[in-house]
Specification:
Keywords: Membrane, Transmembrane, Transmembrane helix. The protein is mainly β and 319 residues long. Helices cover 13% and strands 34% of the residues. It has a twelve-stranded antiparallel beta sheet, with helices on both faces. Strands 1-21-14 form a three-stranded antiparallel beta sheet. Strands 2-15 form a two-stranded antiparallel sheet. It starts with a helix and ends in an 11-residue tail after the last strand.
Length: 319
């Protein structure tokens, strides 16, 4: 992966972690978790396997004392998860990230733009735009502030918009259709004038239900309590993208698990990281994060039961 791709990855992670509305939301997240996880938002897209069925991945057997577990909800890989909302991005912005939970409670899309001359790199060289959705089924839905920021009219409804002092970061929250869905729009643009831009962007939001995010991997086993799975793809182009999945527990203070296809995986069991090699030679990074992390024997069992799905459509990455 070249320097530009590394910067894209870092910028995406930083941007999406800050996507929810400031103030009460960020306070709630930091209280309920010891970290704000990048939600598959830290899971990225890569060339995937051209196979028609899921292939189990062999790995070291877990220890015998595995707790009760559940079978994750299946998703039809060829169709994936439909993205519910879309917007008209600013000129020059291309889509670099999609993630969606299988239960429909969470989705995010991110567009980015490289704004520096060729050869120059740094955080100031990437402008980013994210559209994040929660439904009432997601635990973060209740954290949505009702009075933070200035009130603005978006279509037939009201929204709240907040802008930083330099007008380079703006965040907007609105409820597009009824009380059970909330959208968070976040824009970082060093060129400024973000208040005007984010309001105009919000007015372009519409129903999608045509584009999708497709899984390249799936969990065959998860510990009891891990009931939410997020499928995601992120990257700068189809050839450099990395796909993955993340399992999240019911307990908002517990750690989560993610698996993503990477150029080179790291095997550090003591740090909650396992490296798995797929039948076609590609590598998967499996990582337990948060505090407390799940036990190593459970992480090994997750790895043993990881499966490869048919190749997802990555043609949209970077467009």
């Amino acid at each position: 992966m070249n320097e530009t791709e590394e910067l894209i990855k870092a910028a995406l992670t930083k941007h999406v972690e800050g996507t929810p509305h400031p103030g009460p939301i960020l306070n709630a997240l930091s209280t309920r978790r010891r970290r704000v996880r990048p939600t598959l938002i830290a899971i990225i897209a890569a060339a995937a396997v051209a196979v028609g069925i899921a292939l189990p991945i062999a790995m070291q057997k877990p220890e015998a004392s595995a707790p009760p577990a559940h079978t994750p909800m299946p998703v039809e890989p060829s169709k994936g998860i439909k993205m519910r909302y879309v917007l008209q991005p600013l000129p020059g912005f291309t889509e670099r990230n999609r993630a969606a939970s299988l239960d429909g409670s969470y989705q995010v899309r991110t567009w980015m733009k490289d704004i520096c001359p060729q050869g120059k790199h740094g955080p100031e060289c990437v402008a980013s735009l994210s559209l994040l959705m929660y439904t009432a089924k997601h635990p973060y839905f209740a954290d949505t502030p009702q009075s933070q920021g200035d009130s603005v009219v978006i279509g037939a409804g009201q929204a709240r918009v907040w802008v930083d002092a330099r007008q380079t970061m703006a965040k907007l929250t609105l409820r597009p259709a009824g009380p059970d869905t909330v959208l968070h729009l976040s824009l970082f643009d060093p060129a400024g004038d973000t208040r005007r831009k984010i309001i105009e962007l919000a007015r372009t939001i519409g129903v999608d239900n045509t584009t999708a995010v497709q899984p390249a991997l799936s969990f065959g086993w998860l510990p009891a309590g891990f009931t939410r799975t997020v499928v995601g793809v992120r990257g700068g182009s189809p050839s450099t993208a990395e796909p993955g999945i993340q399992a999240q527990p019911d307990n908002a203070r517990a750690g989560d698990v993610e698996a993503r296809i990477v150029p080179k995986a790291v095997d550090e069991p003591g740090s909650g990281m396992l490296a798995v090699t797929l039948p076609d030679g590609r590598q998967v990074q499996i990582q337990a994060s948060g505090s407390p992390r799940i036990p190593l024997d459970q992480l090994r069992r997750i790895a043993e039961n990881l499966a490869v799905e048919p190749a997802p459509d990555l043609s949209w990455v970077g467009k």
